[in-house]
DNA sequence: AATGAAAATTGGTCTGACAATATTATAACT
DNA sequence: AGTTATAATATTGTCAGACCAATTTTCATT
C-alpha cells in the first residue's frame, strides 16, 4: 500500500476539521464562507469548494446554496448512504444482521438489570399496549414493535450504544424481508414483550434473556427456511 | 424542513450510483474517467468532479491521481471518519464504549458455542502464547491482545458483525486511556484468555462468559475511579 | 524481447465569468 | 414608527479554458 501524498484538498480538509475542533463549533453554527476560506488559506476557490463538498458528504458541514455554510447536525444521516452502498455491493446476509440484533438486545437487557438504571416500566407497558391495539385492528404493527425495542436500548443509559443499534436497525430495514406474520404470532410477540418487561422489573436477567431469545426464534426459523430453499 | 431542490451535482451523484448498481460494478473495478462522464452526462467537468469527490468521501469511489477512478473497496471504513468527527465534536464516554465491547464479546462467545462453528483452538492458543511472550519480555502487549479478541469475533462466521466490531474497536482506540498494566495483571489477562478458549472447547458458555466478564472487570473499576475523580 | 524515453491520458489546481439562491438594505406606504 | 415590497448585495452553483502533476501507453532503440 502506497502512502498517498497529501493533496491540497486534503490539507484544507484537515485544516477545516481542526478549525471546527479548536473553535468548538457546534451543530447549526455558521461557518466561514468560501471567500473567507480562499483568502485565509490562500488556495483557489476550486480547492476550497472540493474540501467543503467532501466534508458535507460525510456529514460534517451543511452547505446552503446562497445562504452560507453551517456545521451539520448529523445524527448518523450520512451513514445511511454508506450502509446502503455497502449492502448493495456486498449483499449482506440477513442472518448476520439478525444475529447482531439479538446480541445487542440481549446485551441491553443485561445492562439494564446489572446497572439498575431507573426505568419507566409503565411507559414500556404503554407502548406495548399500543402495539396490541394495532395488532387487533389489523393495522401496521411495525411502528410500535420498533418503538418498544428502541425504548429498551435507550433505557441502557448509553447513548453510543443506542446510536450504534440504530445503525444496525437502519441497515436491517434496507433488507426486504417478508416474514409471515399472522395474528396469532403477533399476539405471542406482544405477550413476550410483556414478559420481558416483567422480568426486568423483577431483576430476573435469565428469564428476560430467555424470553428475548424465544422472541427472536421465529425469524431465525424463517431465515433457515429461506436459506434451504435457495 | 424544506425540500432541497436537486442540484446538478446531486443529480450526477444519483446517476453514478445507479450506473454502479446497474452494471454491477464491484470493488476495485475501473470506473469511467472524468472526461467520459462530462461527455455522457453533458455537464461541466466541475460538476462531475464535485460529484466524484462526494462519492469518494463516503467510500463509494476511489480516485487515483493520474490513474483513473475505481470502485472503492470499503469495509464500512468510511464510517470511521464520521465517528471520529462525532467523537471529537461531542466527546464520548469511555464507559459507553467499554460496555458495548463487553456486549459484543459476550455475544461472540454465545454465537460461537451455539452455532458450533468450526474453530481453530490451536491458533487461538498460539496467539495467546505470543501475547504471553510480549508480557514476559516487557514489550508492547496491545497487538496480540487485540489480535486475540479479533480472532474470537472473526470466529463467529459473521462478517458484518466483525466489521461493526472493528468500527467500535477503532472508535475505542481513539480514546486515550492510561490503564495501569502491571505484569501481574497482564499475566492474569493471559490466563483468562486461555480459560476462555478452554471453555469454548468444552462448549461451556456460562463459564466462557463468566471469565470474559471477569476479564473486563479491571477496566470498569478503572473507569469508575476516573469518574469519581472528576 | 527487454528497456527506456517520449507521448498521450488522467486527475489536480488555478483563474475568471456568469447564474441561481439567500440575505440585507432601501424605499414606499400605512 | 412599523410593515411591506423592491432593489442591491452576498453567497453558493455551474461553466469554460488553461496549465500542472502523476500515471499509463506507445514506440524506437538496443
TrEMBL record, chains A, B:
Pfam family of the protein (one): FCD
PROSITE patterns, A to Z: HTH_GNTR (PS50949)
MF GO annotations: DNA binding; DNA-binding transcription factor activity
SUPFAM superfamilies tied to this protein: GntR ligand-binding domain-like (SSF48008), Winged helix' DNA-binding domain (SSF46785)
Alphabetical UniProt keywords: DNA-binding, Transcription, Transcription regulation
Domain HTH gntR-type: 6-74
The protein's name: GntR family transcriptional regulator
